[in-house]
Amino acid sequence: MQWTLVIPLKPLARAKSRLAATAGDGLRPGLALAFAQDTVAAAVACPAVRDVAVVTDDALARRELSALGARVVPDAPRAGLNAALRHGSAAVRAGRPEAAVAALNADLPALRPRELARALDRATHFPRAFLPDTAGMGTTLLTAAAGTELSPVFGTDSRARHAASGAVEMALEGVDSVRQDVDTGDDLRAALALGVGPRTAAAAARLLIAD
Which fold has domain 3-204? Predict the structure, then answer.
């Protein structure tokens, strides 16, 4: 089975606000774009991924992510993360009603195609499934097989909320790069330790990150 990934991305000026202490407002938008670029590049290279749809209204992100092979869907609802994901999933299935879709965070700069393929392969066994983030509270990947609504409930404690919604939590080892999202300076240090993509590496080189 191949999947269509739906990746939501806020306007870069507002993205990754919790990184302000690490990156500052001058570097933070560029860092957020670098995360998304490395995430999309890895997703496009994954053999389990048919295509990638990015939901965003940011003009720069639209140009840069389209150049990497992503389809860009305007964030018509402009009503937050879950609305963007529902809209993106509906846009995909308007053309391919039987598409298997998965929501993937845009802030996975260490993402490795093989690890993503492993998680998506496991997801084929369930109507809906999810992968918790490294912190154990959030969600980085939510999948919905053909004929099943994505029904995202991202936000605070999304791990518990997705479990309560009926999605199956996937217990997988060796997929750290799929689970390591970046919201804080500590998260960024952890992602750098795993090994980030080239755009994030270049952007992070401009930061002073204490050990």
Answer: Spore Coat Polysaccharide Biosynthesis Protein SpsA; Chain A (3.90.550)
Query: Residues 64, 17: contact at Cβ < 8 Å?
Result: no
- Provide the token pair at 91: 């846009």
CA-based angle 159:134:75, to the nearest 5?
A: 60
Helix (H, G, I), strand (E, B) or coil at 125: coil
Q: Say what the pTM is.
A: 0.96
Around Cβ 97, how many Cβ atoms within 10 Å? 9
Q: Is 86 left (phi over 0), alpha (psi -120 to 50) or beta?
A: alpha
Digit-coded pLDDT (tens) for 70-105? 999 999 999 999 999 999 999 999 999 999 999 999
Domains of the chain, residue spans: 3-204
Instruction: Give the pair of three-digit tokens for residue 168.
Output: 């199956």
Strands 3-8 and 101-104: parallel
